[in-house]
From TrEMBL:
This is Glucosidase II subunit alpha. GO terms for biological process: carbohydrate metabolic process; N-glycan processing. PANTHER family: ALPHA-GLUCOSIDASE (PTHR22762), BCDNA.GH04962 (PTHR22762:SF54). It comes from the Eukaryota. Coiled coil: none annotated. It comes from Obba rivulosa. Residues 828-878 form the DUF5110 domain.
Length: 977
């Protein structure tokens, strides 16, 4: 939330008219380096004989004996005096890292982006044999020697191939351009020689690139103008650009991949629409420049709050990906010269080239490769997967208590109450406004009573006043970001005149961490008016600055180490939430799992925090795009994501609000939030039937918490996303590549299609395989087809299209409780959905949920299986096994499963937790008997119109009651038909 003037305008002008203030933000044509980069691409396209001027100097080629890296000098025929260095290395898992920097230049390019993003320095493969030839160097590797990386010398071109087929090509179009550092004087001196002839001379075809290049090579390549090299204005702001031009352009092509995904965050389709070429869908490239975009568009390439420069390229043959570790503003053009190939062009304002090529070849491989680079999502506290109730603002301690009471009176589960900026006196975070929050700790204790938590906001802007101890300390310790003249930077934000801590300064880290301690240590500041159940929301960390260029910080501001803000802008928000997360984690001893929600993020943010998609609007378009945005974030490695339920702005009508709860309940992060001038819309305020429908949706979320938690555990180990688009689950099924309105929850086999439009009573769901799918609620069956099939499913307001893929076992807990920790000893239900082959499988991961005891082996990890055995499939067995024991080679959070003891303290405490019900869908006939541990157990059978293996209809349902099965032990249930 931001922009006081607009806020006031919306307050008076009701109903609010939604309109992004597009003129606040640059288009490519308003950003000098993007304009130059696109113009370069234009010239290349128009000149058939275009050839990149960059080449490897063969005499400089060297192989480093310790890193097995291939290094070489690179030069540009346009600026023969400028030196560049190339470093290409292959990691142990086959990822290729390609770095290029200017050597001995006038200045140093920013080269630290990777150090913030990477979880560790990647291990380099020692098995790489580079073959050096006259015109190229190459290496063949991989278990089957099927991967090849080739660095061609002239022009410089890097190609990754698999089985001889091009996967990723760098500089194939010749758009590489690393603008070297130069002085203004040198450029001016040269300029005289730059002008092209006014009129073409007789017989000279100026379209002929060769001729122009010979006449004037620099203008041929860089363009004739002096386009915003030294100073740039936008609106009333001037960027002084003391370093001059230093942008980086590179084309990245996927000649055999027709879909690209990722590069969040943009409000767009998952399969990225084109921005250049014939019939481009968008006119501007995708922009990555973290920005607080007021009332953002639901279909646009504009930047939003965070940036992850990761792109997947996908075809039925393979999935590959790139990660470009760059922290400055970046624009990315996407084109499909053919439906089966993709060209992209990346233009960054500053920084070195540092591109990671991930060879795949499956989506799971790509996720694992990216996770080895930047880490996986941390396993969140279990309560964080419950429902979060937020509003700008709950106005007093009693208001919070009242909201809690109303939830309880209406039997609606909720885990967390949130406080936005108005809890803080004059927006001095940490300091309570005692007029309305006179007893904050008592209030928190009242919330903790139901084992609930609170989240309060701590933004990065510090009110510049001597009476604010946090600002005072930051100033005294010299931790604040500076202007280009070295003075403290002052900008305008919620508290008025504000300053910002420079989290790039290591001295800020321990200081910031100390602020969150709840117990005072001597006379030092401690946040005594908080508790260990107070968690944190970091907003406005793009950073958002009301009176700054593009509502952010001047690019010529100075950070630690002398770097300009432009160099680190996209990383800035991550450092802030990272430090907050570490602070929350370490305020107790032993540490507890932290929860910090961030709005701004970068590659690596997933290791520590959750994010949400910022200030969306209460419209159907925003609801729908929120789904594909969350999928895109999951592709970018950031699983713990969601959109504000209800939309931040506006007053959604009841139907819309109900549907939005359906979306939220199937997002990894599930929070309702609302702007200060919206009407109150807590779910208990709804009339019937809406209220009961939302209650059911909340309960559905809670009943499925075991599924979500198991999916988060898997994500935290493998890097596989918590919500999975079709191409991830069915990489060969072309019919699913563009789908972004239905998706799978982890590896559970749940397929959901939340409804995001008005007046819907039914919808189509795409089934990608010849398998039976069961309606989660009714057991109605649908049958897919090998090449994909659309089926129609009911979707009245009270219905969420939710299907179980045949072959899955879904563990749930179905006792309504007020908060998730209260479910700790609740029994389980297993929904066994038999495949056409009569089998099923599922997993359950459980631990204590808040501490790090799971890292010492305190957890339960079960596998459930159903198989059909005996003559003519007359016997069905359902069993539970310890999954950890089956994976001795694996590790969870660094703890080898080989050392796992299934009688650990946590498991023993859970022994009395039982499976109270098994619901078996798709049996071919009524059982003769159902036995557990050799004894008959109670059961009920409802015959279906069809067996699983047959056509569509209603499945048979067998309900086995209380089969005397503990959730922690091995058991077998035998069903005789
Ligand atoms: C977060 O901070 C820790 C401690 O300084 C550091 O090791 C880690 O790399 C940081 N991570 C990110 C994503 O900034
Ligand atoms: C399913 O429906 C979509 C949208 O109408 C359509 O594009 C697609 O071709 C259909 N797929 C099949 C297999 O019928």
């Amino acid at each position: 939330m931001r922009d006081l003037t607009l806020l006031l305008l919306t307050l008076v002008a009701l109903p609010a008219v939604f309109a992004v203030k597009s003129h606040d933000f640059k288009t490519c044509s308003q950003a000098g380096f993007c304009r130059r980069g696109r113009a370069l691409a234009e010239r290349a396209k128009e000149n058939p004989s275009w050839k990149s001027p960059y080449s490897v100097d063969p005499s400089s080629v060297a192989i480093d004996s310790t890193t097995a890296a291939f290094t070489a000098g690179v030069k540009s025929s346009i600026y023969p005096e400028v030196k560049f260095g190339l470093d290409v290395r292959v990691h142990r898992d086959g990822v290729v890292r390609v770095r290029m920097d200017e050597i001995d230049g006038l200045r140093k390019r920013y080269d630290e982006a990777a150090s913030w993003a990477l979880v560790a320095e990647p291990e380099v493969s020692q098995d790489i044999q580079w073959t050096v030839a006259k015109d190229a160097v190459r290496a063949v590797y991989g278990d089957n020697k099927d991967i090849e990386v080739v660095v061609a010398y002239e022009p410089l071109r890097v190609t990754l191939l698999r089985n001889g087929k091009e996967q990723i090509v760098l500089n194939g179009e010749g758009l590489l351009h690393m603008e070297h550092f130069r002085t203004k004087e040198a450029v001016e001196q040269e300029k005289s020689g730059w002008a092209l002839p006014e009129a073409p001379e007789e017989g000279l075809d100026l379209d002929d690139a060769q001729v122009v290049m010979q006449m004037n090579p620099r203008s041929w390549f860089e363009g004739a103008g002096d386009d915003a090299l030294w100073e740039e204005t936008f609106g009333s702001w001037t960027d002084s650009k003391p370093k001059g031009p230093e942008s980086l352009s590179i084309d990245v092509n996927f000649p055999n991949h027709g879909h690209v995904y990722g590069i969040p965050q943009h409000a767009t389709r998952l399969s990225l629409p084109t921005t250049s070429g014939e019939d481009a869908y968008y006119s501007d490239p995708y922009r990555l420049y973290n920005a607080d975009v007021f009332e953002y568009l639901a279909d646009s390439t504009m930047s939003l709050y965070g940036s992850i420069p990761v792109m997947h390229a996908h075809s039925a043959d393979s999935t590959v990906a790139i990660f470009h570790a760059v922290g400055s503003e970046t624009w990315i053009d996407v084109a499909h010269p053919k439906p089966s190939s993709t060209h992209t062009h990346w233009i960054s304002e500053s920084g070195i080239m540092d591109i990671f090529l991930m060879p795949g070849p499956t989506p799971a491989d790509v996720f694992a490769q990216y996770a080895r680079l930047t880490g996986t999502s941390a396993l969140p506290a279990q309560w964080a997967l419950g429902y979060h109730q937020c509003r700008w603002n709950y106005i007093s301690s009693d208001d919070v208590r009242d909201v809690q009471t109303r939830f309880d009176e209406e039997d609606m589960p909720v885990d967390v109450f949130w406080l936005d900026i108005e809890y803080a006196e004059d927006h001095k975070y940490f300091i309570w406004d005692k007029k309305s929050f006179s007893d904050p700790v008592d209030m928190m204790h009242d919330v903790e009573e139901i084992q609930r938590k609170m989240v309060v906001i701590v933004d990065p802007h510090l009110k510049r006043t001597d009476s604010y101890p946090i600002y005072q300390q930051a100033k005294e310790l010299d931790l604040l970001i500076k202007k280009k003249d070295g003075q403290e930077y002052e900008g305008w934000c919620w508290p008025g005149s504000s300053a910002w801590v420079d989290f790039f300064n290591p001295a800020s880290w321990d200081w910031w961490k100390s602020l969150f301690k709840t117990v005072s240590d001597g006379d030092k500041w401690a946040w005594t008016e908080s508790t260990e159940n107070t968690y944190i929301w970091n907003d406005m960390n793009e950073p958002s600055i009301f009176n700054g260029p593009e509502i952010s910080m001047p690019r010529d501001n100075i950070h630690y180490g002398g770097w300009e803000h432009r160099d680190v802008h996209n990383i800035n928000g991550m450092l802030f939430h990272n430090m907050t997360t570490l602070a929350v984690m370490h305020r107790t001893d032993p540490p507890k799992r932290p929860f910090v929600l961030t709005r701004s993020f970068y590659a690596g943010s997933q290791r520590l925090s959750a994010m949400w998609t910022g200030d969306n609007l209460g419209t159907w378009e925003h609801m729908a795009v929120g789904v594909s945005m969350v999928l895109s974030l999951n592709v970018g490695g950031f699983s713990f994501s969601g959109s504000d339920v209800g939309g931040f702005f506006g007053n959604p009508e009841p139907e819309m609000l109900v549907r939005w709860y359906g979306v939220g309940a199937f997002s990894p992060f599930f929070r309702a939030h609302a702007h200060i001038d919206t009407k109150r819309r807590e779910p208990y305020l709804l009339d019937e039937p809406y209220k009961s429908i939302v209650r059911d949706i909340l309960r559905l979320r809670y009943s499925l918490l075991p599924v979500w938690y198991t999916a988060f555990r898997e994500a935290s180990v493998t890097g596989l996303p918590v919500v999975r688009p079709h191409y991830v689950v069915f990489p060969q099924d072309e019919g699913g590549f563009a789908l972004d309105d239905q998706y799978f929850v982890g590896g559970s086999g749940l397929l959901v299609k939340p409804i995001t439009s008005k007046d819907v009573t039914e919808t189509t769901v795409y089934l990608p395989e010849n398998e039976v799918y069961y309606d989660y609620f009714t057991g109605q069956t649908y049958r897919g087809a090998a090449k994909g099939k659309n089926v129609t499913v009911p979707a009245e307001l009270h219905q969420i299209p939710l299907l179980i893929r045949g072959g899955s076992i879904i563990p749930t807990r179905e006792r309504p409780r007020r908060s998730s920790p209260l479910m700790k000893y609740d029994p389980f239900t297993l929904r066994v959905a038999l495949s056409t082959g009569g089998t099923a499988r599922g997993e359950l991961y459980l631990d204590e949920g808040e501490t790090y005891a799971h890292r010492e082996g305190q957890f339960i990890w079960r596998e459930f299986e159903a198989t059909t055995e005996g003559k003519k499939g007359k016997e069905i067995r359902v069993r539970s096994r310890n999954l950890a024991a089956q994976k001795p080679g694996e590790a969870v959070d660094g703890v080898a499963l080989a050392a796992y003891d299934d009688k650990n303290d946590f498991a023993r405490a859970m022994e009395r937790v039982r499976v109270e019900r098994i619901v078996l869908l798709g049996l071919a006939a009524k059982p003769k008997s159902v036995k557990a541990a050799g004894k008959d157990v109670d059961w009920e059978f409802k015959a279906g119109a069809a067996a699983a293996s047959k056509a569509e209809g209603s499945a048979s349902v067998l309900v086995v009651k209380d089969p005397h099965a503990s959730i922690t032990s091995d058991w077998d249930i035998i069903i005789q038909l």
